[in-house]
Amino acid sequence: MSGTLYLLPTPISSAPIQFALPADVIRIAQRVEHFLVEDAKSARAFLKKLGHPKTLRELSIVEIGPAPDAAKISDWLAPLKSGVDVAVLSEAGCPAIADPGASLVAAAHRNGWKVQPLVGPASIVLALMASGLNGQRFRFHGYLPIAAEARAAAIEALERESKSGETQIFIETPYRNESLFSALLDHCAPATRLSLSIDLSGGDERVQQCAIAEWRAMRDDARPPLAKRPAVFCLLA
Amino acid sequence: MSGTLYLLPTPISSAPIQFALPADVIRIAQRVEHFLVEDAKSARAFLKKLGHPKTLRELSIVEIGPAPDAAKISDWLAPLKSGVDVAVLSEAGCPAIADPGASLVAAAHRNGWKVQPLVGPASIVLALMASGLNGQRFRFHGYLPIAAEARAAAIEALERESKSGETQIFIETPYRNESLFSALLDHCAPATRLSLSIDLSGGDERVQQCAIAEWRAMRDDARPPLAKRPAVFCLLA
Asked: What is the pTM of this model?
């Protein structure tokens, strides 16, 4: 019998691990000894916080990086073939969602090996739940273009798209949050609703949703501070 | 100071609650005494499993139904105004995602009350993580049309859409799963990939992903049994 490929979410904030993962998920993670991880350093910190019964030295922690090399996948997954469980971890949140991991999962399916996703923090879902915008239909875009003109065009396209009632979700690297926020205020219609979810699950968590016109009129100190904090944007025209 | 509107996910399977919710989330839920719930019966069963320190009789459990009445929202949220916390619960999974709750959250934002989403099971995210399909960009459609012709047109449209690399996610009521599955085999191209996630987090959990051509060639007993089980479909052309 083959091993199981676990998809193990990791915390998205500095809150205690007991705020991020169910106790039974922690127990499963404590039994796994083979980890395929986006980033070795953050994975080691996570496994320490998890209270893994083995020392880091006794565990196999293999870094797959942000763009896993397809040629290495079959070696990485080899333990599964001999009945040994493997867990995939991204740097924060759910592996394979806005993060690497999908190519490993696809390979496991091709081989008929068991794949088991585990419950944990998914910033996209937390942001959507807390946005007050339509959660019956939604679309996740990842990152928008960086160049001003291309970004403006993307914003206008997704605002148009959302007129059907479909919530549009996207993210940005923290140091570019302010600039994306300004672009949204510049290019969206006054009545379009925008939700900002900042530092989800963390000590500075803040979720705020209102119309573009209200965001424009708001004093800077009434807004959640965006700079250098993880943020998820939800938009609905 | 106002109370907090918690968005409290509930288990999506009969597995123990410790497999679904982080210990700190369980602790928060045990402190709340006002619950706005999609379905009172399942909410009571959940609160018992949760080991809430108060008896069900001492708690306020108000049923908001699958389509909350807008005229009642301000009464429902009144405790928040006086500093009392309120939690929104759907029948299973995350409130406000493919489930009621968003209109309550929107009202809380209009009043400037604190909204806090909590970590728990989201079948859409678990299914996508385990699908091995693209998790960098995806779209959730909810339910497809039921009538054969409209459903075929919807399937063809989302298969076309997914050629851009965007994974398409949709659900069906359990007793119609088999019929949706047949329609997908009938209307999609042989190379299109389809993932079925059945009874996520439950004892009969099974996730399987392959090309439409492989699904077509598969013996019935090699496929996960779909009838009457909760399922999430992910598709990528």
From this structure: 0.97
